[in-house]
Write a structure and sequence with these properties.
576 residues; alpha+beta; SHC Adaptor Protein; Son of Sevenless (SoS) protein, Chain S, domain 2; 5-stranded mixed beta sheet; 3-stranded antiparallel beta sheet; 20 helices; 39% helix; globular
Length: 576
Amino acid sequence: MQVPQDGEDLAGQPWYHGLLSRQKAEALLQQDGDFLVRASGSRGGNPVISCCWRGSALHFEVFRVALRPRPGRPTALFQLEDEQFPSIPALVHSYMTGRRPLSQATGAVVSRPVTWQGPLRRSFSEDTLMDGPARIEPLRARKWSNSQPADLAHMGRSREDPPGMEASTMPISALPRTSSDPVLLKAPAPLGTVADSLRASDGQLQAKAPTKPPRTPSFELPDASERPPTYCELVPRVPSVQGTSPSQSCPEPEAPWWEAEEDEEEENRCFTRPQAEISFCPHDAPSCLLGPQNRPLEPQVLHTLRGLFLEHHPGSTALHLLLVDCQATGLLGVTRDQRGNMGVSSGLELLTLPHGHHLRLELLERHQTLALAGALAVLGCSGPLEERAAALRGLVELALALRPGAAGDLPGLAAVMGALLMPQVSRLEHTWRQLRRSHTEAALAFEQELKPLMRALDEGAGPCDPGEVALPHVAPMVRLLEGEEVAGPLDESCERLLRTLHGARHMVRDAPKFRKVAAQRLRGFRPNPELREALTTGFVRRLLWGSRGAGAPRAERFEKFQRVLGVLSQRLEPDR
């Protein structure tokens, strides 16, 4: 196998399968070492390495780091964990020939590529495939020749049609030329519909020939509400028999709710008398991961979640958590009716008011629930010691991705640090020693950066300026307003109390700035629906306590689960 060069076309690689679902990819992986690279429909077309290891199918998202354009160097680097490569083929070649594990947590090694056996594929560069939040360019029409198709490599269609469509793949030999015009691809039909008609340019017979398409076709995007956009959707649009004006532009897809700009009139509105308590956590929402009734800690769901988190880089997981935290706090996605009911513009302002009691309780439960789930991710590893150390490293890397200057999600950072500092986790001496031995950088970052940062945030002295921070640390203020006493000597506790109240005033004043920073961090971000659901308070509550136990009193639920974590911790490392 030749070493791939920078900029080499990804679609030309034999192990690249294009748009392919997780289920179909797993069906192609037969034995340990088998692997392929696919475009994930749930991740907006981002590449994912799917492999078989120890009898299980694993999926790893390739993370893209955009660079400032400069002559003589690539526009982006690609990585799985630490090492970066100038192209995806170079990344795959290094891991396959060097027999290095794709991740330290799984130890999965790839050795045998599963080659694509289908029809001729369309050619896309890595920059086109990886268009995302870091790099968004306007669509440009491809040039067409007067006598030949622009490029035979662009013929055919994606290897996987959307659900509800019949696959209709045509070999190149079945695409005869019928005129001097280029052969045009049919736009994929919406979900649940059938293709409108067979066209002469597809080499098929029909009763009446359609009108001749223009030589320079325009582009169209399918309805964004039906399925996430992927690179395979940039297909030429053939006008209908009735005809369409070539100058008619495509409608712009609707922006997600977290990218909607705030109405200036709403932002500058005055306080009005509140009408009712407001909750930003949806209750009884249908779940795609849990059934209507579930038991606590179902093994199949835990296995699915483990694969889901391994598939996403910590930076991607941090953006998912920021999105869910902004919604739970009422920073983004607040409707006009909700503003009218609560009398203020955002949940950050509501937290400081008497009628924000219900929201304060929701955020306290969210913080504690996420911390328990993070601790379970470590204490639930009953395998070798290295597996638990890798789980610790994953939490540390997630905390680094959430810290100020990165995602800036301080409530998410506080929940992850709460898991790492939980007594049941911190007492695992052998696990932490293995972390320092195998993942020294993560261990040093935890001790020298994350722990002092978290201590300063809890004392009201940490960074809180909009820009560095997208969502401020609200837990100390929430506990204080709910009647919890400040621990410590009298002088220190009074000083901490004053800092907390001063920080709350600044938080309310800067609420519009935090909203703009959070929206900017999430601009262009397209979340994975399953991972987004897995980070919601309602899902984690049902996962830990089951559908029946989730309705029990909060103090009772947390006390019982703390005892469960204590038993798991003793089993892993018994007291001497």
